[in-house]
Design a protein that fits this description.
There is one protein chain. The chain is α+β, with helices and mostly antiparallel strands and about 550 residues long. It contains twelve helices and 24 strands. It has a 15-stranded antiparallel sheet that branches. Strands 16-17-18-19-20-21-23-24 form an eight-stranded antiparallel barrel.
Length: about 550
């Protein structure tokens, strides 16, 4: 393919803005771009024509080789191809969110059992579809003012590795990276910097081990040890563009770990089931070192105390929801209606006495009436089952389960850039009440989480999905202080208007119909029924379901 020669000024405005933000510039200035990066920006691999060609190949491959026992995406994919002639990196990223459940095919399979290994797995695992390095915590400055801080390095493999390699792309070339940076001032407001997204073909992404050094433009996570990730220095910068005036935010955090890693789920599998799921570990008790810095709107704030949490998670079939790689599971799925829900609620709690807890509640169709609510009145109480792990002061881990009741909601009426990320006016949880069984100490069996701000803590992924994430205070039923934590709610809002907007696709009834989860045709249901009628297949699905459920995979995910 012959490509027209481009200049930096010919890049689309959003790409230039994203590159500028990654390099800590409020405006794109060509003379400030390093020479080696300029060369990469102007390369054929980074052109809109190349992104379009690669996406066309990707969709054609899905059309030509559909997964067995999967409802047809033919009409959807044929429509998406109409918008693939040329694509910016952001459009290619957003379009990935519109693919079907067969789109996780071709990435590295999740192993049957966890194979997490250090220091190898400090770095991003680029052969999988998605992964993130995520840091959240609560801290205090020298004037005893309280803050909640979030920094997330999130990467997405635009193409299955075999396709990327066939186009001459390295694994890093194949990535889209986005950064989330948010700060909440207790009793004041929550601020999120406008999320930027940059392609690996820009040359702005890199990561190495020995020591761990993860770089995205001028943002970085850097270890101070050769074969350990902590102590870790985290530097990030961005601009909140949703106020009357832009507000710059910068963090420079020094974090040390006080406990061994927690291997989430089943020894690091959450879950490992039929080639899909995630691998996942956490550092649950990080101390913020004195001398760490927060900059808000030009004010230099010295942080002298804080407790943080670190997650590294990677896998397949999360964005978008994907197929099982086991034929028998797909065949069984034809006998069920497609699930309408997606998303989750996640929490971390850091109690007094060097004790921690992580809790997780996947969204289910049972609670559909609580998702996507935009009316004048807030929803009523919602009760869900929740699972998690409790870590005591000696680092002993206990699996637990209980119930979560959400009885207070807050409406999302802000955006870090309203022109780019449309305001959703969606109701989000704002108070959480937990009750656990006697498998944990009595003082942490019943407690509530309350946000540290009144106006909600919603933000946006660069690809258009809105979420809520922010600091909370933990109290017992008698209002006794128990600790602090973070609460996360994902896929409460309808993200489709934003995703279509970013992908350059009109939001029409016809498009929306094509993007609804397709149901199995009568013929496919009959085919699935006959396949599952054979006793060996029945025994196989029973064994698979038992293993997946043991590892915490909800039935909806399998179906």
């Amino acid at each position: 393919m012959r490509l027209a020669k481009t200049k930096l000024k010919d890049l689309d405005d959003l790409t230039k803005e994203n590159i500028a933000l990654s390099l800590w510039m409020k405006e794109f200035k060509a003379n400030k771009i390093p020479k080696d990066i300029k060369k990469r920006l102007l390369s054929n691999k980074n052109s809109p024509e190349a992104f379009g060609e690669r996406m066309q190949f990707r969709i054609q491959e899905l059309l030509g080789n559909p997964d067995s026992y999967t409802p047809s995406y033919k009409k959807r994919y044929e429509k998406l191809l109409e918008y693939c002639d040329v694509l910016t990196p952001m459009q290619a990223y957003a379009m990935n969110q519109l693919l079907g459940t067969d789109s996780n095919r071709g990435y590295l399979d999740i192993p049957d059992e966890s194979d997490i290994e250090f220091p190898r797995d400090f770095t991003p695992q680029l052969g999988y579809q998605v992964g993130w390095h995520f840091i959240v915590g609560n801290c205090r400055d020298t004037r005893r003012r309280e803050y909640g801080i979030l920094v997330s390095f999130y990467r997405y493999s635009l193409l299955p590795p075999w396709i990327a390699h066939s186009f001459g792309l390295s694994d890093w070339d194949n990535q889209i990276f986005e950064m989330q940076l948010a700060v909440a001032r207790a009793g004041d407001e929550h601020l999120q910097t406008r999320p930027f997204a940059i392609a690996g073909t820009t040359g702005l992404l890199n990561c190495s081990n020995h020591p761990f050094n993860y770089v995205a433009g001028n943002n970085r996570m850097v270890s101070e040890m050769e074969d350990r990730i902590f102590p870790l220095r985290v530097q990030a910068w961005g601009v909140n563009q949703g106020e009357d005036e832009d507000l710059e935010i910068e963090v420079d955090l020094e974090l040390t770990s006080n406990k061994e890693f927690l291997l989430q789920g089943n020894i690091g599998c959450l879950p490992c089931c039929c080639g899909i799921g995630t691998l996942y570990y956490s550092a649950t008790n990080l101390s913020l070192e004195p001398g760490s810095l927060l900059m808000l709107d030009g004010e230099e704030i010295m942080l002298n105390q804080g407790q943080f949490w670190f997650d590294h998670q990677w896998g397949n079939a999360l964005e978008p929801t994907g197929n099982s790689r086991c034929k028998v599971v797909r065949a069984a799925g034809t006998l069920n209606k497609p699930t309408q829900s997606r998303g989750w609620d996640w929490f971390m709690a850091q109690f007094v006495g060097d004790r921690e807890m992580t809790m997780y509640a996947p969204h289910t169709d049972k609670n559909l009436d609580f998702y996507g609510q935009t009316g004048e009145e807030q929803p009523g109480p919602m009760e869900v089952a929740v699972k998690g792990q409790y870590i005591d002061s000696e680092n002993k881990v206990t699996d637990m389960k209980g119930t979560l009741t959400i009885d207070k909601w807050v409406k999302s009426v802000k955006s870090s850039n309203p022109e780019l990320y449309l305001i959703t006016n969606t109701w989000y949880p704002d108070r959480w009440e937990f009750r656990f069984e006697n498998m944990v100490p009595e003082d942490v069996r019943h407690f509530t989480l309350n946000s540290i701000v009144e106006s909600g803590q919603t933000g946006y992924n660069a690809s258009g999905c809105q979420y809520s994430e922010g600091g909370v205070i933990i109290r017992d039923p008698d209002d006794k202080f128990l600790g602090k934590g973070f609460a996360e709610s994902v896929y409460y809002a309808d993200s489709l208007p934003n995703v279509l907007h970013l992908a350059g696709i009109p939001d029409t009834p016809k498009i929306r119909k094509l993007l609804k989860p397709p149901e199995a045709s009568p013929f496919l249901k009959l085919k699935g029924f006959l396949y599952m009628a054979w006793p060996p297949h029945q025994r196989k699905i029973k064994n698979i379901l038992e293993k997946c459920l043991e590892q915490g995979l909800p039935i909806d995910f399998l179906e």
